[in-house]
Specification:
Elements lengths: L1 H26 L5 H140 L4 H43 L5 E5 L2 E7 L12 H16 L5 E6 L6 H22 L7 E5 L12 H7 L1 E7 L4
Parallel strand pairs: 3-4
Antiparallel strand pairs: 1-2, 2-5, 3-5
């Protein structure tokens, strides 16, 4: 472009020189015509040079346009490459987020498993302690029954002796026969009353023996904690062992309920109440509804898949109203999220 400007400048100067030459040629003599021709030659040479420079400038302009077009294409390719790199970078960021989420879920599962293991160990310890206390209670009951039976047998023998003596006295003392007959009848009624009390005691002992057998059998069901109450056995299953985060039974939870159903088949006369519990997290109304739903799910599974009579099983939920541990820790909340199966033993 600088050469073109220079050429134009030279052309302008040449034109001026040509005009000056014509003016001089008109004014001067023939002797100066030669000088004018020389200037004309210079002018023509200058014009030829200008044409050459002009052609060269046009060629450079075309080359510059081609390079500009190629540069624009390279720029478009570069922009496309940047877009692809941005997509790949976004994919990498998404992959990092997914990996971080998976790691968090893995840690959560590990923590849940650790809590479950701790609870299972505590359950085994509590079961061993319950069996020890049950054995002590059984020994004490057997001792009391033996002592009571001996005392009762002694009383019966004494009463029989008294009856025999009364009958002998009736034969010997005719005047007192009517009076003694009344006394004998009273003693016999007392004897009958004592026998009835003994029968009640025997029934009580049988009920306690059945309760003990039920408690031991319930404690052997995996993931189930069993304890004796007032004329009932309370079987507790943690929600983490039964359900998903909502109220859907897991395959492992169904397997636990299969064991519970087999237990109920061994005691077909027992009534059962399924009671759902939650921790204190969330709103009370939502917790109440969730506890009822979980209790109902357990009842429906036992009825539908383990052939437990619908009339034997009822369901209720109490929300977070009956905690067994603090809600201030994760372990405590896990223990409060549970379903209880309350089995009425039917003892007198």
């Amino acid at each position: 472009m600088d050469d073109l400007s220079a050429a134009k400048s030279w052309l302008s100067q040449a034109e001026k020189a040509y005009e000056a030459a014509n003016s001089i040629m008109a004014m001067v003599s023939t002797a100066k015509m030669k000088r004018a021709k020389e200037e004309e030659v210079i002018y023509l040479a200058t014009m030829a040079k200008i044409k050459g420079l002009t052609a060269e400038a046009k060629a450079k302009e075309q080359t510059t346009a081609a390079k500009l077009k190629e540069t624009q294409k390279d720029l478009a390719d570069y922009q496309s490459a940047i877009a692809v790199m941005k997509e790949k970078l976004q994919e990498a960021e998404n992959a990092k987020k997914i990996q971080a989420k998976a790691e968090a879920e893995r840690k959560h599962l590990e923590e849940s498993q650790r809590i479950a293991d701790e609870i299972e160990a505590r359950k085994r310890k509590e079961l061993a302690e319950a069996e020890r206390k049950t054995a002590e209670l059984e020994a004490m009951k057997q001792r009391e029954v033996r002592e009571g039976r001996l005392k009762e047998e002694k009383r019966i023998a004494e009463r029989e002796r008294e009856v025999s003596q009364a009958k002998l006295m009736e034969a010997q003392l005719g005047a007192q026969r009517v009076k003694e007959a009344h006394e004998i009848r009273a003693r016999e009624e007392k004897f009958t009353e004592e026998k009835e009390k003994m029968a009640v005691m025997q029934a009580r002992l049988q009920a306690l023996e059945q309760e003990k057998a039920m408690l031991i059998a319930a404690g052997k069901i995996p993931k189930v904690t069993a304890e004796a109450g007032d004329k009932k056995i309370i079987m507790t299953i943690l929600v983490i062992d039964l359900f998903t985060s909502a109220s859907d039974l897991t395959p492992a939870g169904k397997k636990i309920l299969d064991g519970v159903g087999d237990f109920f088949k061994s005691y077909p006369d027992s009534k059962v109440l399924t009671r759902g519990h939650t921790d204190s997290t969330g709103k009370a109304a939502a917790n109440q509804a969730l506890s009822e739903k979980r209790a109902q799910e357990v009842r429906e599974y036992l009825v539908a898949y383990r052939n437990v009579s619908p009339g034997r099983v009822t369901a209720e939920g109490v929300g977070s109203a009956q905690p067994v541990a603090t809600n201030a820790s994760a372990a405590g909340r896990a223990m409060n999220r549970r379903v209880e199966l309350i089995v009425l033993t039917g003892e007198p």
